[in-house]
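Subject: Sanity check before I submit

Could someone independently write out the structure tokens for this chain? I want to compare against mine line by line before I put it in a report. The sequence has 161 residues.
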Amino acid sequence: MRAVTPDEAAPDASRVARSTTGVFLCGEPCGPRNACRMGILAALQDDENSVSFDIECPHDYRQTPNLAHTSWTVGMMSEMCGQLPLFFGIMAFTGTVTTRFQAAVPTGERLIGRATLEGCERRKVFVDATLMSSVSGTELAKASATTIAVEMRNLQDRGLT
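---
Independent answer below. Compare away.
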């Protein structure tokens, strides 16, 4: 399944900075550091619909000595859902993200994220994501998101070009 087909007026998603491990990086502060401050260590497109992420919650985002803060978990789910369209050449803004917590999210252990393209409707791109423990295999959180493919006129209207 292919998401939204970028039209000729769409911004070029290939120009978004990426780390050496495949992670798309925001402009500040991640780009200059060549690393995701949220803790995405690596990203790999699995097939035509999904991307896997190696993740570890940074020490600064802990809620207790061994658990990630809920705001970090929600942010990570949003980040995975937001990065997925870029792997398919589509720049998109987040419309909505709904996160469901399944279990406590540990710090100090590798986590596995997976985002999957579930469909599209005009400029809307529908994404599901999961976060799992690499140690126990437990599903820790899941999310559903709607992102909106960017059109150049949207960026121009906001002075972002």
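---
OP: Matches mine. For the report I'm noting this point. The domain at 13-157 is CATH 3.10.129.10 (Thiol Ester Dehydrase; Chain A).
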